[in-house]
Amino acid sequence: MAFRRLLSAAVRRRSSAAAAAAAGNAREASTAVAAGPGAIAPDAPAARAPVMAYDRIADAVNARVRRLEHPDPRFLRYASPVPAHVDHTAILEAPETKVTTLDNGLRVATESSLSSRTATVGVWIDAGSRYETEEAAGVAHFVEHMLFKGTGTRSAGQLEQEIEDMGGHLNAYTSREQTTYYAKVLDKDVPRAMNVLADILQDSKLEDNRIERERGVILREMEEVQGQSEEVIFDHLHATAFQYTSLGRPILGSADNVKSITKKNLIDYIQKHYTASRMVITAAGAVKHEDIVQQAKELFKSLPTDPTTTNMLVAEQPAIFTGSEVCILL
Ligand SMILES: [Zn+2]
């Protein structure tokens, strides 16, 4: 029960949207941290663009409100007679996102809310189906399946049992741009969840018999996706918008590829794309930033450290927007 993966493509898409939002937040936060509070000039807050709707209309309202020449001081004791710009940044940025970059390039981003009794910890990887080669399309999603199928120290059953014993929830999804593994657990189980994530990411066994069994699972998932018109439409949309590029292909790849992907394809993809600098360890809820940084340092020691960035890979193989039209008669 606790160990479920998203087979439903609809859920998959919702999750990608959430992740995209989360990644966006992380990037913003990262930028904010890089600039640092000390880097902001003393008069900077005044120059900041208004951030809430009623701030934006404050000027327009001010222009129309006639100032009273002799306002009754009783009404002005606690407030301004006209709407005023207020800097809400501090409220909007709470809880603060803290980001630390480790020596190997791995980033750790956390948001603490210590009144919470639960936490979500995860690994967001800047790698998805758009980084696949045409011959191995579908490998990113295949890897995601295989990382739940046993490690050097935990069999697939033990992995499942361990999360279930915690009353936790381990999940993953693959999108065109990202792959994510995350666990929702009680506060006391955060170190164990981190340990499981580090284990599946760095020491998955990728056994041949498991690979063969997983082909069937993925082919059935493909059939399921084919039956969901909202999924099929988005695949067509990508295919028409980015013709003959990796972004134009469906995330699951083709059935022929799923039948022929090899263990070497899986290992190559992990080695090339699951690199430290393209990963963010994220934690939100009942966590302390320093604890997560410490655990990440101890647990994620054997990630590949290839410095190639996604920008470099995209520049090598850009997915140019072609646009076109497809008409499907039902
Ligand atoms: Zn799947």
Automatic annotation (TrEMBL):
Keywords: Hydrolase, Metal-binding, Metalloprotease, Mitochondrion, Protease, Zinc. InterPro entries: Metalloenz_LuxS/M16, MPP/UQCRC_Complex, Pept_M16_N, Pept_M16_Zn_BS, Peptidase_M16_C. It comes from Aegilops tauschii subsp. strangulata (Goatgrass). Its cofactor is Zn(2+). Gene3D superfamilies: Metalloenzyme, LuxS/M16 peptidase-like (3.30.830.10). SUPFAM superfamilies: LuxS/MPP-like metallohydrolase. It holds the Pfam family Peptidase_M16_C. This is Mitochondrial-processing peptidase subunit beta.
